């Protein structure tokens, strides 16, 4: 059995169980999957991020994309691409360089790089604005 998070065309979110991915597709094509709030048969799978445990205890994220999610993914990819094209890569010195820029010790400019969770937490506590860039499928292929 598979539990899917679903969205209808009217923006309602709900969950439903199916025997398989094919079962969902067949029921949807026959308009048997409907929104419990409004009855709309225009239903798509929502973004799903179940934790998948591997032998190395590393978690992976799985995405089941409907049309709206595909559009959102393309927008995220475009945003990440634009940041990378218009900002300076500072690598693991991101937190240090962001702090220097914030306190006027370095030239104001767009930067991107890596930061640990503790470094990001410290930046946020100091009121330094930053935005984590998502790791997208094309980044890992």
Topology diagram in text:
Elements: E1 2-8, E2 13-18, H1 21-29, E3 43-45, E4 52-53, E5 59-60, H2 67-86, E6 88-91, H3 94-102, E7 111-113, H4 117-125, H5 137-140
Parallel strand pairs: 6-7
Antiparallel strand pairs: 1-2, 1-3, 4-5
Detailed description of the structure:
It comes from Nitratireductor aestuarii. It holds the Pfam family DUF1178. This is DUF1178 family protein. The chain is an alpha+beta fold. It folds into two domains: 2-60; 78-132, no CATH class. Helix content is 36%, strand content 19%. The protein has helices at 21-29, 67-86, 94-102, 117-125, 137-140, and strands at 2-8, 13-18, 43-45, 52-53, 59-60, 88-91, 111-113. The strands form three sheets. A three-stranded antiparallel sheet has the order 2-1-3. Strands 4-5 form a two-stranded antiparallel sheet. A hairpin with a 5-residue loop joins strand 4 and strand 5 (59-60). It starts with a strand and ends with a helix. The mean pLDDT is 83.
Sketch the topology as an H/E string, one letter per element.
EEHEEEHEHEHH
Instruction: Going across the biggest sheet, name each strand in turn.
Output: 2-1-3
Report the helical percentage: 25-40%
Rg calc: 20 Å
Q: Number of domains in the coordinates? A: 2
**How would you state the average pLDDT, rounded?**
83
**Portion in beta strands:** 15-25%
Give me the secondary-structure category: alpha+beta
What is the CA–CA distance across the termini? 30 Å
Oligomer: single chain
Query: What's the total number of strands?
Result: 7
């Amino acid at each position: 059995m598979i539990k899917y998070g679903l969205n209808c065309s009217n923006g309602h979110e709900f969950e439903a169980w199916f025997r398989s991915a094919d079962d969902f597709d067949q029921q949807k094509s026959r308009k048997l999957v409907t929104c419990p709030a409004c009855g709309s048969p225009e239903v798509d799978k929502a973004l799903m991020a179940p934790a998948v445990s591997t032998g190395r205890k590393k978690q992976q994220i799985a995405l089941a994309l409907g049309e709206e999610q595909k559009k959102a993914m393309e927008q995220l990819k475009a945003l990440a691409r634009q940041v990378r094209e218009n900002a300076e890569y500072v690598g693991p010195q991101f937190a240090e360089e962001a702090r220097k820029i914030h306190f006027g010790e370095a030239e104001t400019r767009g930067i991107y790089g890596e930061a640990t969770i503790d470094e990001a937490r410290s930046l946020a506590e100091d009121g330094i604005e930053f935005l984590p860039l998502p790791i997208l499928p094309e980044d890992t292929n």
